[in-house]
Amino acid sequence: MECVVAVDVGGTTMKGGFVARDGTIHHFERRPTPRAEGPARVIAAISSFVSDLSRRREGLRPLAVGLAVPGLVTPTHAVFSAAFGWRDVPASAFTDVDLPVALGHDVRSAGEAELAYGFGGDDVLYLPIGTGIAGAVVLSGSLYGGAGGWAGQIGHIPVRPDGLACGCGQRGCLAAYASGGAIAARYGASSAADVVRWVSEGDARAVEVWDEAVEALALALATYTLVLDPGGVVVGGGVSLAGDSLLVPLRARLSERLAFRPAPEVRASALGVRAGVMGAGLLGWRAVGS
Amino acid sequence: MECVVAVDVGGTTMKGGFVARDGTIHHFERRPTPRAEGPARVIAAISSFVSDLSRRREGLRPLAVGLAVPGLVTPTHAVFSAAFGWRDVPASAFTDVDLPVALGHDVRSAGEAELAYGFGGDDVLYLPIGTGIAGAVVLSGSLYGGAGGWAGQIGHIPVRPDGLACGCGQRGCLAAYASGGAIAARYGASSAADVVRWVSEGDARAVEVWDEAVEALALALATYTLVLDPGGVVVGGGVSLAGDSLLVPLRARLSERLAFRPAPEVRASALGVRAGVMGAGLLGWRAVGS
């Protein structure tokens, strides 16, 4: 069966697999992203992952490689990534296999997968909450990039103008409260999933950190709603696996923040953490011309 | 000469005139909006204004009437206006003259005038700051309305989550700090223009109120920039007449709030307070089919 090799390179975890033309994932695997070891080691780890996947055929015939990465990206270059310290890395550097390779932005690609295979909707914010937060802004049925391709940086809007310092250099950013990385770091936990578990056990500090994360998200979504009047918001990424622990209070707080208009529907992604790999698959299929 | 009668109904002032097919205004006149006297009196005042303008020909031949009003509007009905207490007022109620009448949203219409006759740009926020604040969101060369036509409510985004109560029922809205109405009310002045004048004279309370207004605008524009990456921001309405007293500190504070990306250009509207009448003119011309 024809397929593409697809890898979604996240801040802490790489997710990879084979994606068929209809979006079906035929193998799904995770590996740690060796971010702490520097720019070159992350590139080498991606290359090994792609090579290992390409060898692992089982009746699958890979036609191309799609790589979803963070930062500023063109189909042929990872132009800039603050997360990984990359500058102008060509697509060919990410793999030794003899297949066409296409790069794309991780959040945009996952948003395209949501658009193609998920809940759909013409005017939707797709908001993956992982190590960081960015948004795919879907307007009138298409991803919107803005004047210079930088749209969707919702993780860095100032929800608390005099609030916590953010790694980006600003203060009070949404991501400083509500990203998986921030939730874990504020508690001193190794992951946001641990904090969510401790919330359910009534741990006071976990409740406080989670509460501030949910309120920051409600503020950001209230702002997005007032400016762009979306038909819905689809929350994805690792933090969305909290399910109702996230969605129930988030919906309530969003409604409280909107006095004169109803809140849009807020749902968890139907694709879950696989949206990124499916998005990388779309990049790969685009590279083979379909 | 063929023209349309155009009236822009603002919160405190109505502006009206004749608009030629090329956007030229051939007569421009202001009247107070009798908002305090109730919904029916505002409608009657608009009707008188249109009748008086229609009689005042001087070689002009009016073909239609365009009315730009606040709230939720269709071409045939003022569906809802919190500002004026209107509900489902038909276009015909606004005039006795025997001409086609078209209604439109004041900020959207002014935004269309900016698009047609002003600075232009494919991805621009047009932000008129008058008695209240709303935005016309121009994306890829068109006004964007959102899933339900409610996009652009930037005046009510929560820039200070625990801040001042706003008339809309929310807290910390941009408009509670930076609208002309709020600037005047916070000082106890009769207009924002007075406060601007006193700022230049070094009045401490005026400086404080103005400073908080500019900071609130910078926060809102930083958020808009991060989410939508506009090519530029065009500030209009009465408060934009403050010119450099507004633009110089606003540009500086917007740049301070954006750590990892440049700020978009922030300009004052080239059309000034006439944008609303030119927008109402576009509505009128649309009613005659051109």
TrEMBL record, chains A, B:
Task: Give the superkingdom in one word.
Answer: Bacteria
Species whose genome carries this gene:
Nonomuraea marmarensis
What InterPro entries has UniProt attached to this entry?
ATPase_NBD, ROK
**In which family does this protein belong, per the annotation?**
Belongs to the ROK (NagC/XylR) family.
Protein name per the record? ROK family protein
Q: Which Pfam families match?
A: ROK
Q: Which SUPFAM superfamilies match?
A: Actin-like ATPase domain (SSF53067)
